[in-house]
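QA checklist item 7 of 12: single-chain prediction sanity check.
[x] sequence parsed
[x] length recorded as 250
[x] structure emitted
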Amino acid sequence: MNFAKFIVNDSISILESLRKIDINKKGFLIVVDQHLHVLGTLTDGDIRRAFICGKAVEANINSVYTRTFKKLTIHDSIGTATDLFKNEAINFLPILDDENKLVNVITKKQVHALLLQDIHADLLYDFEKLDENIVDYEIFQRPWGFYKTTVMNDYFQSKVINVNSGSQLSLQSHDYREEHWIVAHGSGIVQLEQSFIEVHCGSSIFIPKGCKHRITNTDDKESLIITEVQIGNYFGEDDIHRYEDIYGRV
């Protein structure tokens, strides 16, 4: 791994360290000596607290960085990292060898990305090549409400779907995925081909590949909230064949 953007020596100024943090976009640096022995860590929070205490930007980081820090060794596992990251104050962990030298760095988001994509790795894995954006799926607005993807990897995707009161998804089918719905809140009617099924909190629906389906929120006040798990070999939004749609999207 290329540590250049993460490491500094203890002789640089606060201003220099801020510039480096701004470049790496991670919010932290690891302080090392010339042999890569780890001396401590420096975060943007450490710098903020230093300013509050009256430190100048020209001051040396020697009196600012944290010498007592959480770390992993090459003998630990991803499971150990997961346990440590349960502490909300820990967002990254240096990984050290038996001589206290830096050999890798892992962040909380990278652990989440590993787990969500079911990637099996040890602590020498190149975590920088992970797509951390998988952890931060946005909420996507639709005419009927919104959905948020919670997990997506090569073999399944999960979503939370919120259907506004009186709203309805299009009548649609999919070629490459089956869907499993569980109603978490509200009530409505699910259409599967020519069948209509009333659903409420706790109802579960299986939608095979190729099956025409849609759901309608029949409540005039409450949202209808569904958890959806898609299983298949492709999960793109272009795998939607629409047959009827009250919002004119056919």
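[x] summary fact logged: The chain is about 15% helix and 35% strand.
[ ] second reviewer sign-off
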